[in-house]
Amino acid sequence: MPEVHETRRARLRERVNASGSASALVTRPANVRYLTGVAPPGAVLLLGRAEDLLVHGITPGAQAAAAGVTAAADGRPDDALRVHTLPSPGGDPAVAAAGLAAGQGTDSLAVEEHHLTVARHRAIGSVAPALRLADIGGAVEQLRVTKDEEEISCLRIGAEIADQALGELLESILVGRTERHLALELERRLVDHGADGPAFRTSVGTGPHSGRRGHRPTDRRVEEGDFLSVCLGATYHGYRCEVGRTFVIGTSPADWQIELYDLVFASQRAGREALVPGAAYRDVDRAARQVLDSAGYTEGLPESTGHGVGLEIDEEPQLAPAAMGKLDACVPVTVEPGVHLPGRGGVRIDDTLVVRPEADGGPELLTITTKELLAL
Most buried among 1, 101, 149, 287, by the most CB within 10 A? Predict the structure, then answer.
């Protein structure tokens, strides 16, 4: 998709020029990949006055990195992007790119201050003292919020892989196995089914650990009567999605487990139904949170109901109480409410969806593993 990346850079250039800078230096890896289609380790993008440069250094993996540079879309970078490799090892591509910008006659350079270290900032000032540095802010991240159909297709395939890995695990014997073992097996299955790798560290929680957001798997073994909560994600062509489900181990769940599960399910459904173009981020959060609040679960709830996904697993927008902004169509987000009762366990239900207008059928559910409370 060389033309896609060139168009993205053109959109960024418009923003940079409108803010008064002639050039921009992009250093955040996900942003470099978004704008070029490739991102060798440590590579930076110089959006220059004369030409756009992908600048990277010589590393032990230089040959592989160089091969990766030419692996975009039709096998090469687009014609408007030139690859510049530093002539000797140990150089900083960001500092070198600033020097190249100055050599192009640039007097102002917009940088990603939220990613650029103080040391790098000082080094740039040393190599190009006449260069005025400005903050590009989150301009690239804002461009990344709305996905094109090619990006959504990658997320869709990643979701299918995650669903498949989870479905296969549920068909196996679980009692007596550790959280850590189950998590490792899920990650292996993701790769077996075509994922680049896990989108994040897989979370498996059993018994009193279940329902805890971001729980790190332990050596606790699955027991009869446990809640089992699983959260995993697949990365496919760089794009990351996630799915989370909660099950019961044994023949039938206890009354309190059914009640808690139904509550979280109702909360998650309310959040999913609120995903319409034009909906405020905080209103989606409120829709899901009110269900839990009304049942008395006001303490210990997650800071947000969900977040955007894409080249990173947690990106804009944030579906949180204080979040500012409104949803657009073609924005993929998670809806992942949960309740954890200390010492007892809890429930988390997590889906990845794409915001779609009502005329197109409403929000598109990418993760389709059943949300029925199964007894495994």
Answer: 101
